[in-house]
């Protein structure tokens, strides 16, 4: 009586065991990574949709066209203390003193003092903008959820929802934010979100005459950004803060903060 | 008679609580925007708002579609990496209405000077002129076509392009040396500078022609034992030849 089901069980077990080698052979034929990837959805690379920018410091001539174009494209106030992107001129002297100055958006870069030439070791321009951190301090401190990271990695400000408390301006280690006096809300670089979502380049990248700025998606295989990342030693600003910026610099001087 | 009865004060306070909870739900419903929390702790509609802002710069492709003739000239010139709107200004309105809205046509010197004025902070190798010495008052366009800026006449002097070096050298002890003393440039270098690079001295004996102890040059020139001075380093690894007393 009790013998019958036992045989049944044993028979079933043996039959299943027979299927195993067949299944294993099938998996090895298709390839296990393919099976795994299919279960995760279409794209197996989450970086593919993350926008990022590259800045080649040794190509920047400090013409300020990017600053101008940004102000035009994004209706930024013309006063020289409201910038979504700006260009800093570094001047490093023999005694180790470093002078940093924003060159503004005028028609021509102000000349350096000629007397200081003998004291100057090196001088160069560094374009700066919001770093669109992957781990953004500004988003963490916003009390109302008015600044946020979109699914493509861009940090935006919802000016309809911002209460103008300026926590984010304080929190940003790169000084990339300012309070727009017209709306009394925080404002900053959006990577020209209205352009990039339509397949255009950000205004600063569009007008840069020396291609010091490149733009693209992190996962894209053939893009100026990917090429720049391959060919240069890369650096980000303030890496010790673990903000994981998505603006990459090449040939960045150690004095740049 | 019921043994157990809800006390009056409990009923009253319960009503208060219910009213407060209903008020909270209603106020939350009213105050929190509809799309809040759809994608994260933010208003999902804000992404759409940001994506639909007006565009001012139309992009290179829009320019090329009509102005293919100019684009073709530019594409093989030194200005090939520039986009049209860098000099001509934002042109999205012009793309919408090509006859009514005309883009900027820069003249004079300001637009060119913005990039090509000599500034010591600019990377070496980028063509720069000293604006006050390079044909002052003359509009750049009378000699250079901005879409193909190679000068129609070959530059008369090295300083026309290498202003930064010329300027540094002019105030150094090497002021009296011509560029040709140390560099040999093929004549083609003047028309096609990157394809025909001038050469540079490669041996320390070259500097020794003037600076070696046994050289026949003027006695004012500083002398060193060329074979041993500086060890395995070449002269120009310590002394910048265009400004030897510094750096």
The chain-level mean pLDDT of chain B equals 89
Taken in chain order, the helices and strands of chain B follow as HHHHHHHHHHH
How are the strands of the biggest sheet of chain A laid out side by side?
Answer: 9-1-11-10
Q: How many angstroms separate the termini of chain A?
A: 84 Å
Which sheet architecture does the biggest sheet of chain A show?
Answer: 4 strands, mixed
Distance N terminus to C terminus of chain B?
A: 107 Å
Which regions of chain A have little confidence, pLDDT < 50, spanning 5+ residues? Answer: 32-44
Radius of gyration of chain A: 27 Å
Give an account of the 3D structure.
The complex is a heterodimer of chains A (257) and B (247). Chain A starts with a helix and ends in a 7-residue tail after the last strand. Chain A contains 8 helices and 11 strands. Chain A is an alpha+beta fold and 257 residues long. In chain A, strands 9-1-11-10 form a 4-stranded mixed sheet, covered by helices on one side. The model of chain A is unreliable at 32-44 (pLDDT under 50). Chain A has helices at 3-30, 32-40, 65-74, 137-141, 167-171, 193-196, 203-207, 224-231, and strands at residues 51-56, 85-93, 98-102, 120-129, 147-149, 155-157, 178-180, 185-187, 213-217, 234-235, 247-250. Chain B has 247 residues and is mainly alpha-helical. Among the domains of chain B are: 60-105, Helix Hairpins; 106-175, no CATH class. Chain B has helices at 8-31, 44-51, 60-66, 68-75, 84-88, 92-96, 110-116, 163-170, 179-182, 204-211, 235-238. In chain B, helix 3 crosses helix 4. Chain B is elongated and about 130 Å long. The mean pLDDT of chain B is 89. Chains A and B meet through helix 3, strand 2, strand 4, strand 5 and helix 6 of A and helix 2 and helix 7 of B.
